[in-house]
Amino acid sequence: MGLEITSGMLAEFKDREPEAYETYKKIFQNINVVLAANNLEPHNEPEEMENEALQFGGFPYSFLHHLRRFLAHAWENEDDENWEPKPFSPNDDPGADSILEDHYSYMESHLLTHSDAEGFYLPLEMPEVLFDIEEARVPGAMIGSSYSLLKELKGLTKPLGIQLDEHDDITNIAQLNKIIENQGDFWIEILVFASLLDAAKFSIKNNTAILFN
């Protein structure tokens, strides 16, 4: 078992899995209660799509912590123009990194402030991560913004050696795939980055929520 990242699943479930459709229909109703409680407009999850739903992943849940740790260190050194990331020790637990723990505590990041195994990102501009409420529970408890997630990811392109074009498509994918295949420096971070980038772009383009499960 590993983390699966999907988007557009309500439309996928509608005709194929009626029980799952009803379950997620209720969850999106609860999400809109949370949005209303925070004075935000509702999210209307599409029930029909021209494109197939996005579904991929299967990498270990712990892989998220590698990218989160990298983000925390990048932010910690954002005032140092000469900063270059150095590979972490493979024996270190990324989730126990003290710098990551500090940035977790600020609860300002949509990438950091999110469940490892559940939860949603919505294609809405939101100033901060939202939390569910007693009368409207949401799996994972935390609701992030696909726009904020995309922005945070794009801030990591330079230190990760990732090149994007004007459409936010990766242009040096062959080079990155080689790093991943050879398990080179930051290969886990690059793998998770690429997965989340695709999900954020799909979410914004199709007005669909990103779901971790």
Key features of this structure:
213 residues; alpha+beta; six-stranded mixed β-sheet; 8 helices; 6 strands
What do you see in this structure?
By secondary structure, the chain is α+β, with helices and mostly antiparallel strands. The chain has one domain (3-212). The chain has helices at 9-16, 18-37, 63-76, 98-106, 146-154, 157-160, 173-181, 187-206; strands at 3-7, 54-59, 120-122, 130-131, 142-145, 210-212. Strands 2-1-6-3-5-4 form a six-stranded mixed β-sheet, sandwiched between helices. The mean pLDDT is 94.
What's the helix and strand layout?
Blueprint: E1 3-7, H1 9-16, H2 18-37, E2 54-59, H3 63-76, H4 98-106, E3 120-122, E4 130-131, E5 142-145, H5 146-154, H6 157-160, H7 173-181, H8 187-206, E6 210-212
Parallel strand pairs: 3-5
Antiparallel strand pairs: 1-2, 1-6, 3-6, 4-5
Main sheet makeup: 6 strands, mixed
Helix-strand category: alpha+beta
* Share of β-strand residues: 5-15%
Described by the principal axes of the CA atoms, the overall outline is globular
The tally of beta strands, per DSSP, is: 6
